[in-house]
Amino acid sequence: MKKLALWEAQHPKIVILIALALLVPAILGFALTRINYDIMSYLPDSVESVQGEAILDETFNNAGMSIIIVENSEAKYAAALKEEIEKMDAVSSVVWVDTLADISIPKDILPDVLTDVFYSKSEDSTMMLVQYKYTGSSNETMEAIKNIKALLSKNAFISGVSAVVEDTKELSEKEAPLYVVLAVVLALIAMSIMMDSWIQPFIVLAALGMAIIYNMGTNIFKGEISFITQSIAAILQLGVTMDYSVFLIDRYYEEKEKYPTREEAMANAVTKSFTALMGSSLTTLFGFIALCFMTFTLGIDIGIVMAKGVVFGILTVVLVLPELVLIFEDKIRKYRHKSYLPHFDRLNNFVFKHKAIFAVLFVVLLVPSYFIQSKVDIYYNMDKILPKNLISIQGLYKLRDEFQMASTQFIIVDDSIDSSKLTELENELEELDGVSSTLSYNKFIGPAIPDDIIPDAILDICKKDGKQLMMVNSVYEAASDELNDQIEKMNSIVKSYDPNAIITGEGAITKDMITTTARDFKVTAALSVIAIFILLALTFKSALLPVLLILSIELAIWINLSISKILGAEVSFVGPTIINCIQLGATVDYAVLLTTRFREELHAGLSKKEAILKAANIAERSVLLSASVFFAATFGVYLICNIPIVKGVCSLLARGSVISAASIVFFLMPLLYIFEGAISKTTVGWAKGKKAAAVSAEETSKEENENA
User: Fold this and answer.
1) pLDDT tier at 87, thresholds 50, 70, 90
2) What is the pLDDT, as a whole number, of residue 686?
3) Helix (H) / strand (E) containing 225
4) N or C: which end of the chain has fewer CB within 10 A?
5) Whether 351 contacts 670, CB under 8 Å
């Protein structure tokens, strides 16, 4: 390692040229990586509702069906709109009243089966169903929906899962670049204030920027990433790898005093830093890897991308940053300024003086914070994941308020079921509380009319390949307890007629998402704690230290989520899982830094009190810098983001970085001092030099006499 580091230090320009050349394929890979905007697509294939969606897509071309709502307009406008939509290449069919009846027939004398489905009961509104030739979230379907939106008047709206996905895509593409720009600007401001050079922040960001591009470019091997991952990955990577850069630069200036040349000093700094950085980064890496054990595969998406980000961050810090520092060192020195990073002497003396109070407060907060955070309100609804002003969300509200279609379920049954039995099934479903209407082939056509004289548009949407499709509309919103209970009853009724029947649709998928993510939340939270506990136990060769370190960060996580509950704020379903893994993995480094420094000072012969105060004064400056950059980047995105699910995650991450840093200062520092004796007995190699041991014993005896 040292030979490699020395060669790099002696040939910085060659290394930088190689690094810049590698950006070309990385940028190309980033451009070619597809972005997935459909959150529901991350449910596992084993879930029945997902299997139903596959049948809707493959058999009925219906998984991405859109619903057009037209208000206060003449029938001629709706007919003309339908005709224009039908001309689009990606559209397979559009079903409206005129598919089954002439629009010249007055609405009042149309059959109830048509008016109940295609006209609202309270408003002068009508709706039509649009089917596509391609899957619901395909590029062709997205382009078709974009073109449909361009045709709609101010009195027309589009809704459905695919419309929501297209709106998400449009908004995310517009905002995602702004997130990165703002995060970089705010990170620069934070670093410029706290570092002692105006140039150094740009050097650090240049190296980390390369790492981010490498990471995002290599996502091409995955084929696609989620829009949530795309929105937060760069910001998270910047926040969690910032302290690696600061650590290396600080180490370089320490080594310069020991070696005759800059190159030797940098080579030694890289060599010593690499082992320390690998150990530190593993906790973060394990936190992200825990996400990969989610059955809701959005966790795998975020976990893999962020784990790669940590690896690229480490490699860039030890392979690229040293060369940038050597090349621009003269500029760094030339533009030095006073650092505005505060000193913590007075604060740490205050905390140390009241250490018993803070230790008791730590214990007192554990149980209530855990209990409160477990009761945090979680939402799954599409209308809460996205802004309310999007046309697809407005369409959802129109369906709910004017057509009593707050949610729609699709039931897929065997076509061989007798029509009389299907009529009984429909009647039972319509009698369920909250069911507003049903739409089915059997209800429209009846048993007397043969299939060969039925319009293809009706057959394609209702009956195909030995399967028959029923649409059941409910006044209950997706993710509500009422709808989940209704789906349970609906499933029981349907299975009694066809054991192989499947219920799918937004409500059924959301219900399965609730079940899946609830299990994932528990599994990933436990795995991240266990993995990091084992890593810390091996790193420190200790049984007690991992408990103290993890509890100090877990308390910060619980307080973070508890604040959301206390403020009455709902949290998106991905929020708790991401926070438990990412906040633990990313900020436990703060605890490791303080603990490692405390041990070093004890080994250097300082008394227990001197060691903890010196360690805190030194470590907390690095913690503050890292937490400030993490906070600035994520809070900046929170301020400008219009996608509630991304905004909520950034809010939790920003708040979490501050709370974790505070937990280290006010809780971990007193705990390390108070439990130092127990730590010494349960940790291999914690033993101090004779001088330190004697001083510590004298100190302990004095305290015992004072207490007596």
Assistant:
1) very high
2) 86
3) strand 224-226
4) C
5) yes
